[in-house]
Write a structure and sequence with these properties.
It is found in: Cell inner membrane. It comes from Mucilaginibacter gotjawali. The relative contact order is 0.14. This protein has a four-stranded antiparallel beta sheet, sandwiched between helices. A four-stranded antiparallel beta sheet has the order 14-5-16-15. The chain has a four-stranded antiparallel beta sheet with strand order 6-13-8-7. It has six domains: 1-30; 104-178, no CATH class; 196-233 and 550-645, no CATH class; 238-249 and 452-540; 252-334, no CATH class; 338-434, Chitinase A, domain 3 (Roll), CATH 3.10.50.40. Helices cover 46% and strands 21% of the residues.
Length: 690
């Protein structure tokens, strides 16, 4: 019995585990916890994706000069990284199948050959000419073995990306070189663009029948859906949810309390002797205190006050952008508008801060003794300016990091200074200073207007009470009872970071992609002053959507289709016994509209819209014959073709082929990738990670 009981328990546990695996979409035989996606069976791990995101984020910060990235920018970087990994995986399979390679000699040629890669030219360009500075490139390549591991890795990643781009270029060239435009295609395109049609038409617009007078049947919807099914292919899973927001804005009592707090901070700010530390401790927004010109303080109120105040003056509290702010004038003086300087950057990461300072001091003594600053820069500086003798050109305030900037602007022409920044230890020589104007160093403490815990508790209790009243079917009813406005987030993808009305909605979206249709949110979601309760209303899976999924979307078109049947019947009655378009129009109660010089390639009715079916039929008609009724985009039409004006014979088939070929080439890159991506059966699991 003991063995039987043990076996029975074992089977029960196994069944439970398998059930959990099935429900979570995982595998019993592999660990999918790090699986972010699959492309043609190749796995993309979350770990590898995250490393790539970190690299791209660092590159974005470097190029944009931003610090912390906003949720929206982070989402953009993540999406770009995902597309890079998918493209890389998809194309790598094609490249491997074809045996395409980038050899060592070709790689060297892309870096330092006669026609180097555009990325190399951009990275090592002369700022003045925009052309490749070969001495700067060669100096970097010679110093590369002695540089830090971080820089070596960055260079290795750069070369890898360049090779991948070259392989992609080779593959695309193979495909696009197979594209061909024949003479018949060129002639047909020439005719479509130059042959003119002159005709008259009568139209019964769909708007002449009110929507509430039309009742489409299920068969009408099904017929439209079957005819346009290919248009309803969903590239990724989308979900829609309704939600309401309980607003926990600060009460008048909260505002008064925060104002009192700001008043106390203002008093302490006046007496503090360490303004930077005071800002770091008391400000909601931590920012470095630096010298700025008039117009750069970020608030017109400060410009009008601080540039006429004395050192130590405190302004505020004043209300700005949802916060009480207190500003203190730390210092002000007149200085140059711009500085011309050169520098030598010593890398302290490899030799340490103390040794870097010692080396900088030794080099300064050599310069003071008459040694060439430019020669020493070329030999010892790790900055890109080394090849130019350390020359940085002329720059204004805001172009350099704070300590470097202060040293350059606070000194005088001819000074040589040593200063440390986050990049290393700099030896700076001030070559020239131009202009003069007043700058001010202003420290700002902001105290945001926030709801008190008491206010938040009251609003949260209301939201929690509403959540507790919900069932799967009564969301709309309960919303009406409390009198709040229901909002809708329609067709949200799994990695969305915001929805209309909610800027930071990542947690809410993550819930939506783990819920079942009809579910309401598992908790009250909090975003700033917003307390949110949601109801999942629709799930649109990846692939061809069902009729139910698109029924609301296609309703206007189905209504027009039903109206089209009624209006074409009306026009057919008007055609009976009529011999001219004027007679048809008179019977139908409409006017005749003449059209001159219509081209097939631009089928737009003046004052209306594109009518592809109508214009296509016109160009396939015989002159002076009344057409049958045609249900178009805006209404039902009858027309009569007056004449065609044929263009002169095509004399330059080569030019026509080239124009068509160029248009085809421009579309090729994206279409090739989309075709390969579609074939690769991409599986995207990012919604559960991001």
């Amino acid at each position: 019995m003991g063995k039987i009981l043990a076996i029975s328990i074992g089977f029960s546990l196994l069944a439970f585990i398998i059930g959990e695996v099935v429900r979570s979409g995982g595998s019993f035989f592999r660990d999918d916890r790090d699986l972010l996606g699959e492309v043609s069976g190749e796995k993309i791990s979350y770990t590898d994706f995250n490393k790539k995101v970190d690299q791209n984020s660092a590159q974005f910060r470097q190029q944009s000069g931003q610090g912390a990235l906003s949720p929206q920018i982070t989402s953009y970087v993540q999406e770009t990284t995902w597309n890079q990994l998918v493209a890389q995986t998809v194309l790598q399979k094609e490249v491997d199948n074809l045996g395409l390679q980038v050899g060592t000699d070709e790689t060297k040629s892309m870096v330092s050959g006669n026609e180097p890669n555009p990325q190399i030219v951009q990275a090592f360009a002369d700022p003045k000419t925009g052309q490749l500075d070969r001495s700067r490139l060669n100096n970097f390549l010679n110093q590369l073995p002695t540089l830090s591991p971080e820089i070596k890795q960055q260079w290795s990643d750069f070369i890898t990306q360049m090779i991948e781009a070259k392989l992609q270029e080779k593959y695309v060239s193979l495909v696009t070189n197979s594209l061909y435009v024949n003479t018949l295609e060129a002639k047909d395109d020439y005719q479509n663009k130059n042959r003119l049609a002159n005709f008259k038409y009568a139209v019964l617009n769909y708007s002449s029948i009110p929507d509430n007078k039309v009742t489409p049947t299920d068969a009408d919807y099904q017929a439209y859906y079957d005819e346009h099914k290919a248009e309803f292919k969903n590239q990724q899973e989308l979900r829609s949810f309704d939600f309401i927001t309980f607003n926990a804005a600060p009460s008048s009592a909260d505002s008064a309390g925060i104002k009192k707090q700001a008043d106390k901070i203002a008093g302490d700010f006046k007496t503090t002797t360490n303004d930077s530390l005071f800002v770091q401790i008391n400000a909601e927004t931590k920012s470095a205190i630096s010298y700025k010109h008039k117009g750069q303080l970020g608030d017109p109120k400060l410009d009008s006050v601080m540039f006429n105040a004395s050192k130590g003056f405190v302004y505020g509290p004043y209300l700005s952008n949802g916060s009480y702010k207190i500003a203190k004038l730390v210092d002000s003086h007149v200085e140059a508008d711009s500085v011309k300087a050169k520098h030598i950057l010593i890398d302290e990461k490899t030799i340490g801060h103390e040794k870097a300072l010692a080396r900088a001091d030794s080099l300064k003594k050599l310069i003071d003794g008459g040694a060439s600053f430019a020669d020493l820069a070329k030999k010892f500086s790790i900055d890109g300016s080394a090849a130019k003798g350390g020359e940085l050109g002329t720059f204004a305030r805001g172009a350099m990091v704070g300590p470097f900037e202060d040293a350059a602007f606070n000194g005088k022409k001819g000074d040589i200074k040593i200063v440390s920044t986050q990049f290393g230890v700099h030896i700076i020589q001030i070559e020239d200073q131009k202009g003069s104007s007043k700058v001010a160093k202003v420290a700002i403490v902001d105290v945001p207007l926030k709801a008190s815990s008491a206010t938040q508790t009251v609003v949260y209790s209301k939201a929690q009470g509403f959540l507790g009243s919900l069932t799967k079917d009564n969301f709309d009813e309960e919303v009406k009872k409390i009198g709040l406005k229901k909002q809708t987030a329609a067709d949200v993808n799994g990695v969305a970071v915001s929805v209309p009305g909610v800027n930071s909605a990542r947690d809410l979206v993550r819930w939506a992609f783990s819920a079942a249709k009809g579910d309401f949110s598992d908790k009250v979601y909090i975003e700033g002053n917003q307390y949110i309760v949601a109801h999942l209303t629709q799930i649109k899976p990846k692939g061809i959507l069902s009729l139910d999924d698109v029924k609301k979307q296609i309703q206007p078109m189905v209504l027009n289709q039903v109206k089209g049947k009624a209006l074409t019947d009306k026009l057919q009655s008007a055609l009976n016994g009529a011999s001219t378009i004027d007679q048809v129009a008179q019977k139908a109660g409409v006017t005749v509209n003449p059209i001159q010089n219509m081209v097939f390639a631009n089928p737009v009715i003046p004052g209306s819209s594109a009518e592809y079916k109508l214009i296509g039929t016109v160009f396939g008609s015989q002159p002076n014959k009344l057409s049958k009724p045609i249900a178009g985009t805006q209404g039902a039409y009858v027309f009569v073709l007056d004449s065609f004006t044929n263009p002169a014979p095509m004399t330059d088939a080569v030019r026509e082929k080239q124009q068509l070929g160029q248009a085809m080439m421009q579309r090729a890159d994206s279409q090739i990738f989309e075709a390969l991506k579609d074939k690769a059966n991409v599986k995207d699991y990012r919604a559960k990670f991001l």
